[in-house]
Amino acid sequence: MKPESNPIKIGWSSVDITPDWPVNLKGQFNVRIATRALDPITATALALESENQAQGFILVSVDCVQISLYVQQAFRRLIAERLPGFNPDQIVLHGTHTHTAPQQSAPESWYPPLPDSFKAPEAYGDFLAERLARVAAEAWQARRLGGIAWGQSFAAVGFNRRSCYLNGQAIMYGSTADPMFSHVEGNCDHSVNLLYTFDPENQLTGVLVNVACPSQCTENLSEISADYWHEVRVDLRGRLGAGLFILPQCSAAGDQSPHHTINQAAEERMTRLMGFMDHNELFVIAQRRVIGRRISQAVEEALPAVRNDIRTSVELTHEQSVFPVPRRLLTPWETNESNRIIAEANQKLALIKEADPISAAYSVPYAQKVYYTWALARHARQQAGDLEMPVVVHAMRIGDVAMTTNRFEYYLDFGQRIKARSRALQTFVVQLAGEGAYLPTARSVAGGGYGSWFASSPASAEAGTKIVEESLRLINQWF
Length: 479
Fold this sequence. Notes:
Helices cover 33% and strands 25% of the residues. The protein is built from ten helices and 23 strands. The strands form seven sheets. It has a five-stranded mixed sheet with strand order 6-5-4-1-8, covered by helices on one side. Strands 9-14-15-16 form a four-stranded mixed sheet. A four-stranded mixed sheet has the order 18-19-20-22, with helices on one face.
C-alpha cells in the first residue's frame, strides 16, 4: 500500500459474552432456563477513523435479541471511564437477534420474577455492559493504518415468514398447505453486503457481513447459542484464517426468517442427501450448517474481486439523528381486546398460582398479561395526547458505501426503500440498534397477525416511512 493523504485507521476486538451461571433466555413467551451453552455468544467491535478528518466511530455487534435500555445506560457509564473524551453517540450497538441469548433486565421483559435461587436478569445486563465497554475500547485502542474494501454477494438465508390467506388474514408461520393460502406477504433479500479490512501488507484482518435475516434457526432451544452465526464463524475461519474477525449485522428483516414456509420437505431431503444432516438430527440444527456454508461461500467468492480495489484513504463520516415518529394508536376494539386477554391470563394464573414460575404453564399467561398491559399503557399515553416517540438513527459513510441503523425489527420493505433510493454505491441497513420492537408496513398491519398486531408494534407504519426518509436525507447529503 502506498501512503495516502487521508489514511484510514482500523481496529478490531472480540469478546466472549457467555455467562457461566443459569440464565433465562429471551425471545419466546415462555421462560427457558439455560444451564449450558451449545456454542459461545460473542460481541465484536470494529473501530474506523479517518486520521486527517478527525472522524471516527465504533460498531459493536452483539449475539442477543436486542440491546436493552438497561444495558445501553450501563454501557454509556462504563465507556466514559474506558474512553474518556470519546463521544458515546459515535458508538453503535446492535443485536443479531438470536433467540438463545440471556434476558438482560427485568422491567423490559415480560417474564415472571425468577426464584431467589437464580441471579436477577440485571446480573447478566451488568456483565454484558462491561464486556461491551471493554470490546469497544479495545477496538478503538487497537486501530492501526490499513485498507478497506467493499463488495456484494448473495446467499439464500432469509425468507418472508408471513402467510396470507384468501380471507385477507396474515399469520406468521401460517400453513401454506391450507386451501385458503393465497401468497407469501412480501419479498426476501438474498444480497450479502460485505466490508473487508486489511493490514498494511494487504492481509485480510476482518469482515463485516450484513444479511437480511435474524439468527433464528434454533430459536426454541433452552441452551445459549449464537445460532447460525456460530456456524459462519467456524466455517469462515476455517477458510480464511483462525484469527479472522467477523462482525455480523442483521439488515431490515422484521418479517424474515431462515425457515422457508414452502417446500420444506424437499429442503430437508436435500439437506440430508448433501450430508449436512444425520438421520437422528433435527433439521434446524443441520440448517444452521447449510446457512453457515452459504454465507461463508458468499464472503469467500467476493474476496478476490474486492482485493483489486482496496482503499487506504476514504471519506469517513458519521451523523446521529434523534427525531419523533408517530406512535401506533389503539382503537377502541384493540383496547377492549387487551382487557379481555389480560382478564383471561389472570384467570389462568389464579388457577395455577402455586405452579413453578419458570414453567411454561405459568410463564406464558404471565407474559401475555404483561404484553397487553404494555399495550394499555400506550393507550393511556395516547389519551393524554402523547402521540409521538423519539427514535435514534445513525448514518455513516465509508468511502462509496453508506450505513444506516434503527432500533426496530424493521420490515424488509422499508429497508428496500432505503437501498433503492440511496445515492451510495452500496447501502447497509442495520436493525435492532437499540431495544427493539416490530415496525410493520401498512400492508402487514392490514393483514394482522403477530409482528403486525397492535400489541407487537408501538410505532405506526408511518413511523417506518419517516425513518426511511430521514435515513435517506442523511445518506444522500454525502453523495
